[in-house]
Amino acid sequence: MITLYGYNRSRWIKPYWTLNELGVPFEAKNVRPDYLHAECPEVLAHNPFAKLPVLVDGDFYVFESSAISTYLADKYPEKKPSPKPGSRDRALYDQWISLASTDLEQPLWRIAKHSFLYPPEKQSEADKILAREDFLKEAKVLNELITPFLVGGSFSVADIVMGYTLNWANGYKLLEDFPKLKSYIVEHTARKSFPKELFQVAR
Ligand SMILES: N[C@@H](CCC(=O)N[C@@H](CS)C(=O)NCC(=O)O)C(=O)O
User: Fold this and answer.
1) Which of 40, 51, 160, 178 is the most buried (most CB within 10 A)?
2) 10/102 same-domain check
3) Residue among 13, 16, 51, 167 to mutate when testing ligand 1 (max atoms within 8 A of CB)
């Protein structure tokens, strides 16, 4: 049995969306990261960084939202194949997943931290402005490169990771000048597998 721990409309959307897309049954446990100690000490024991999401597959624990998503797609090739390791498509798949999870995500995370995660006295408007600039610089290039599906002409985890990240950016109104990026997320978040319900929960 697969159990996915995560919290509301956060990075667990990536593996949640992947599991839906694969049609693999799973149990979703919505828990706040700061409640892990009290509610799920076994999860904390397997991810002492105390961050979510964490996936539990039998006796196996894995964390990092993009790594969980690629693990799942690789584990169920009969449901939806992911590109074969060593192939050029696999290299491109890893390329887009890395870009979205690092260069594109980090400015968004900085904006989140300086908007509501750091205590008010540590929040910096100047760093938020820099983070917006960093994101927009990448987005300008990506808007020219993006294609309806990032790899191999069909929907893959690369589109889940990129779609999640761009959707987050859109929430910060960072895609206003990038119509191709906006169309990309409209298209992919309209999929039946996109977990829209996570945008309603609050705890
Ligand atoms: N790179 C990690 C980031 C995980 C992360 O920061 N998760 C947030 C929720 S989306 C969290 O657990 N925050 C709690 C904390 O930073 O203490 C991933 O993609 O899974």
Assistant:
1) 160
2) no
3) 51
Q: Are residues 11 and 35 in the same domain?
A: yes
Verify that 183 and 141 share a domain, yes or no.
Answer: yes
Q: Based on the fold, state whether residues 93 and 161 are members of the same structural domain.
A: yes
Lay out the sheet containing 54-57: strands in order across. 27-30, 2-6, 54-57, 60-63
Chain segment 72-106, per-residue pLDDT in tens: 999 999 998 899 999 999 999 999 999 999 999 99
- Structural domain tally of the chain? 2
Tokens 């309603």 appear where?
A: 200
Pocket test for ligand 1, best of 43, 49, 52, 108 (most atoms within 8 A of CB): 52
- Asked whether residue 65 falls in the same domain as residue 94, the answer is no
Q: Which atom of ligand 1 is nearest to the CA of 101?
A: 19
Same domain for 59 and 41: yes
pLDDT of residue 9: 87
Over residues 104-125, the pLDDT tens digits come to 999 999 999 999 999 999 999 9
| Domain region containing 123 | 88-189
Coil/strand/helix, residue 99: helix
The CA 52 to ligand 1 mean position distance, Å, reads 5
Q: Distance of CA 55 to CAs 1, 34, 66, 106, 163, Å?
A: 11, 17, 11, 22, 20
52 lines ligand 1 (CB under 6 A): yes
